[in-house]
Amino acid sequence: MKTQAAVVYEPGKRIEIEELELSKPQEGEVLIRYTYAGLCHSDVHIAHGDLEARLPMVLGHEGAGIIEEVGPGVSRVKVGDHVVCSFIPNCGSCRYCANGQQSICDMGATILEGYLPGERFPITGPRGQYGAMCMLGTFSQWGVIHQNSCVKVDDDLPLDKAVLVGCGVPTGWGAAVNTAEVKAGQTVVVMGIGGIGINAVQGAALAGAKNVIAIDPLANKREKAMELGATHAFESADLAMETITNLTRGQMADSAILTPGLMTSEIVGAGFNAVGKGGIVVLTGLNKLEEMNIQLPGSVMTLYRKQLRGSLFGDCNPTTDIPRILGLYQSGDIKLDEIITRTYSLDQVNEGYDDLLEGKNVRGVVVHQH
Ligand SMILES: NC(=O)c1ccc[n+]([C@@H]2O[C@H](COP(=O)([O-])OP(=O)(O)OC[C@H]3O[C@@H](n4cnc5c(N)ncnc54)[C@H](O)[C@@H]3O)[C@@H](O)[C@H]2O)c1
Ligand SMILES: [Zn+2]
Ligand SMILES: [Zn+2]
Q1: Is 27 helix (H, G, I), strand (E, B) or coil?
Q2: Is 9 in a helix, a strand, or coil?
Q3: Which numbered ligand comes closest to the C-alpha of 134?
């Protein structure tokens, strides 16, 4: 069957809308009609070449939709199910899934290659085989994906909001709740208030942090952070230091969660200086794989027992945490409607990313037409 999709052919070039051919689902695979897709910064990294991926690639890794067909051996979902896609699949049986670390499931090894198990490419087109970002490619009307990327959700959940729980919400929320291990009464700094950082703010507030200090150069981002749980907001880490010192009587923050669009050594350094003894610095934002963006005084780290932790998908387990977060949305404890700034058609995907890069959006969402 045919599908319209947003493709990156060459790093640095505009994303192209192309009609591609989608093959039928094979063993363990499903056909999904994507209804919504979120515009996350990680797709920009592919389009800009900051993250090297196999090209051509259909972009989009935050997605929700309805299962239209299932291949042989599919047991996790059935036709008609509403699903939120997880940008990391989980096989359920590798060493990492088995011990409760689904976000580093071995099956996720090919998320930047974009093919399904067995080097299978369900999408073909004028330039041969097309990969799909995170084995999903949600900037496409339809997708053939593995069942292990699907999390069934209740039929009455609005998928136009639930779509954000495929990446942005668990990644930010989990960075606070899981990786930074935020506890009641703590002081938490969040640097970079986009679709990820705003959810780190929500997660830190929900976990009981007394002070949640949001840092972003943009006023609209700081306002949104204050609306959704931040207690203070500053344009830069430098400007925040005096308040962090005063609020903690010089002990400094318990954790700093770093969620900027592009991670730099300056940002890592600022996060490191914002936390005190025993403090945890969480690295969520990305940059080129070979970029040496951590330059820190190791002896200070040792003597102050500071920790640096990488966080993927907020260290969440998609099968349990996606439904958990959606439950918190239904109870009003996590806000999703408020963090969607604008919607776009698939044709407007470049405009959506221009808006993201100009800092207009907390999160933009593509609404698919069929
Ligand atoms: N680790 C993971 O699992 C994971 C998952 C998804 C996205 N990401 C990465 O997280 C990062 C954020 O993604 P997003 O979609 O929220 O991006 P975004 O572009 O929506 O938001 C980034 C924000 O950072 C702010 N910013 C830029 N420089 C800053 C600085 N020096 N100090 C403070 N704030 C600064 C920008 O103004 C913007 O508001 C990206 O690098 C993305 O690739 C990681
Ligand atoms: Zn993402
Ligand atoms: Zn696994």
Answers
A1: coil
A2: coil
A3: 2
Measured CA distances, 253 to 144, 174, 176, 186, 309 (Å): 45, 18, 13, 8, 15
Query: Which ligand 1 atom is at minimum distance from the Cα of 262?
Result: 41
Ligand 1 close to Cβ of residue 217 (< 6 A): yes
Tens-place pLDDT, residues 30-65: 999 999 999 999 999 999 999 989 999 999 999 999
Domain boundaries, the chain: 2-166+336-367, 173-311
Q: In 3D, which of 152, 153, 149, 193 has the Cα closest to residue 172?
A: 193
Q: CA–CA separation, 152 vs 318, rounded Å?
A: 11
Greatest distance between any 2 Cα atoms in the chain: 63
Burial of 87 by CB count in 10 Å (0-12 exposed, 13-18 middle, 19+ buried)? buried
- Whether 135 contacts 146, CB under 8 Å: yes
Rounded CA gap, 340 and 300, in Å? 40
Whether the Cβ atoms of residue 70 and residue 78 lie closer than 8 Å to each other: yes
Q: Would you place residue 105 in the very low, low, confident or very high pLDDT band (cuts 50, 70, 90)?
A: very high
Burial (CB count within 10 angstroms: exposed 0-12, middle 13-18, buried 19+), residue 269? middle
> Would you tell me which CATH number, out of the four given (3.40.50.2300, 3.40.50.1450, 3.40.50.720, 2.40.160.100), belongs to the domain 173-311?
3.40.50.720
Q: Cβ distance 51 to 88 under 8 Å?
A: no
Query: Alpha-carbon distance 90 to 103, whole Å?
Result: 7
Residue range 247-251: mean pLDDT, rounded: 98
Provide the edge-to-edge strand list for the sheet that holds 307-310: 232-234, 211-215, 187-191, 253-258, 275-283, 307-310
Task: Look at the domain 2-166+336-367 and name its fold.
Answer: Quinone Oxidoreductase; Chain A, domain 1 (3.90.180)
Predicted confidence at residue 93, as pLDDT, reads 96
Mutate to test the pocket of ligand 1, among 39, 41, 45, 362 (most ligand atoms within 8 A of CB): 41
Decide the pairing of beta strands 232-234 and 275-283: unpaired
